[in-house]
Amino acid sequence: MTWRHFTWVLTQPIEPAGAKHIATLLAWRATDGDNHSFPTQERLAKESGQGLRTVRRHLGMLERDGWISRTRRRAKDGRYVVDGYLLNVDDNDIEAAVAAVKRKPPANLAGGPAANMAGGPAAKNGQASGQIGRASGQIGQHIEMKNTLRNNTMNLEPGTVERWQEACDAFRHRYGAATYASWVKPLALHASNALRITLSAPSTFIRDYCRQHYEPFLRERLGVTIEWIVVRPAAN
Q1: Which of 72, 84, 146, 214 is most buried, judging by how many CB atoms fall within 10 Å of its CB?
Q2: Helix H or strand E encompassing 134
Q3: Dist CA 84 CA 12 (whole Å)
Q4: CA–CA separation, 179 vs 167, rounded Å?
């Protein structure tokens, strides 16, 4: 088992929560190098606290949305044995997820044991510092979002945002909210002109999957060709 696969799954927009729980259990058993795991469905049910039918439904969702691939295995006498599950992720995306998590500062840095004494001045100061820090972070994220939107808009043809929103709405109606949240919602408008729209994806996995499975639909809705790039999210 490897915590690297586990970390990658935790950072992905997998929905619903029950399916993500199953994905974390598969990731926990994945082997380095080939990303395979071989738990029985009964074990997944026991460890997740889900019924067997629910586990099978969530496995089907993960396979349908492209997060995993399933292989049926046979013994030498022809009997079916435990299915194999492959996490559809490359090493670059795993390393990027691990690096992003490592760069995040640990929680509750301020204060030692005295800061945890209920009612003490250190505890109150620590709480105040935490509230100020969270507020500052929210303000910073808000400013960064506004700057990003302004910078991106400078590279877009008039009407591109509206056309993209219409394409997203049509995609959600066609493929469902869960598929939209997993694949199209993470995409962002990067640039456009009269003939082409450039979409950025947060990982090569999402870029390649969308390009292979959903580009024809998006291209038809947008009315122009699509260029794909990868822009990995900056670590906080």
Answers
A1: 214
A2: helix 121-154
A3: 21
A4: 14
Find the radius of gyration of the CA atoms of the chain. 22
| For residues 187-216, average pLDDT | 89
Q: How far apart are CA 83 and CA 42, in angstroms?
A: 12
Of 84, 100, 116, which residue sits at a domain end? 100
Residue 16 preceded by cis peptide, ω within 30: yes
Q: Give tens-digit pLDDT for 142-179.
A: 444 444 444 444 578 888 888 899 999 989 888 888 88
Within this chain, do residues 7 and 83 fall inside the same structural domain, yes or no?
yes
Q: Of 133, 85, 96, nearest to 230 (Cα)?
A: 96
For the sheet containing 188-192, what is the strand order? 188-192, 196-201, 225-230
Q: Domain holding 69: CATH number?
A: 1.10.10.10
User: Domain for residue 105, yes or no?
Assistant: no
In the chain, beta strands by DSSP E? 36-37, 68-74, 80-87, 188-192, 196-201, 225-230
Q: Which CATH number goes with the domain that contains 210? A: 3.30.300.180
Domain that holds residue 41: 3-100
Please give the share of the chain, as a percent, with pLDDT higher than 90: 12
